[in-house]
Amino acid sequence: MPELPEVETIVRGLQPMVGSRIVRVAILDSRLEIGRQLDDADADLRNQTVESITRRGKYIHVALSGGGSIVVHLRMSGRLVSHCTESDLPYVRLRLELDRGMVSFVNPRRLGTVDFSPDGFPHTLGIDPLSPEFTPDRLASLVQASRMPIKQFLLDQQRIAGLGNIYSSEALWRARIDPRRSANGLAKADIRRLHRGIVGVLQEAIDHMGTSFGVSVSDYRNAEGANGRFQERLAVYGRQGEACRVCETPISRCVQGGRSTYWCDGCQS
Ligand SMILES: [Zn+2]
Q1: 133 is known as an active-site residue
Q2: Could you say which of 3, 6, 8, 170 is catalytic?
Q3: Full-model pTM
Q4: Distance CA 210, CA 34 (A)
Q5: If you measure from the C-alpha of residue 169 to the centroid of ligand 1, how many angstroms do you get, rounded to a whole number?
Q6: At which of 115, 147, 182 does a domain end?
């Protein structure tokens, strides 16, 4: 958390900041993991204009007029919040002060990262599942190269960038595929359903502004600070023992690679 739909929702919420000029980069946490000297960031980025704010996988890229670039990865609990004036948000580690408002990087558990590298997105990042290049054929060539269980395969950001624990379980339920099957054992029809499951669940989750669970400071919020609504529509994730929405079989849970996987024994074989 947050995964692709949550990051996409944040990026959409930040679009009003495009075209604004950086007045100051305030780093409020000397322990913030940053890819460059802290002192340089403010001097280098000041007066540059925000040209675009885009997403690939779970990464956010802010492109600046002077060729500068800010890459943010929220990881488990980071948030980007836009606001008009000074606010009393807790755990703000970095604040981008713009001529048209502010963006605060809230990072309670210090797991999120900010990088001022001009390179943009990490080179190792896999294909974004909402890009036009993500076709059933492309997915087929990716899965054929892996013997991993399909659920763990879907979490590998170097192959497909953006899926995490929630949406990989949900996509597999939609595709009626057992998460423990090996990736290269999937048939053509499985792959077509999986492609549809991945794209479908991500788009639907974006339509509902992502998934939020609790009310803690670590929980996902959009750029305006509001909760997502997709949690009400989850079919398997976090529903162990509850009835499948299609066949009423109790939802199962297992641990794969240290992460919880949820599935329906009735629908997924
Ligand atoms: Zn079922």
Answers
A1: no
A2: 3
A3: 0.94
A4: 27
A5: 13
A6: 115
Residue 86 appears among annotated catalytic residues: no
CB 170 within 8 A of CB 263: no
Query: Rounded to whole angstroms, what are the CA distances from 37 to 40, 44, 92, 96?
Result: 5, 11, 19, 16
231 touches 211 (CB < 8 A): yes
Co-location of 246 and 141 in the same domain: yes
Q: Is 200 helix (H, G, I), strand (E, B) or coil?
A: helix
Does some domain include residue 128?
A: no
**Residue 5 among the catalytic residues:** no
Active-site option among 56, 58, 174, 221:
58
Task: Examine the residue annotation and report whether 151 is marked as an active-site residue of this protein.
Answer: no
Question: How far apart are the C-alpha atoms of 70 and 92, rounded to whole Å?
Answer: 17
Residues 48-94 pLDDT 10s: 999 999 999 999 999 999 888 899 999 988 889 998 777 778 888 89
Q: Whole domain around residue 204: which residue ranges?
A: 136-263
Confidence at 174, pLDDT banded by 50, 70, 90: very high
Amino acid at residue number 83: H
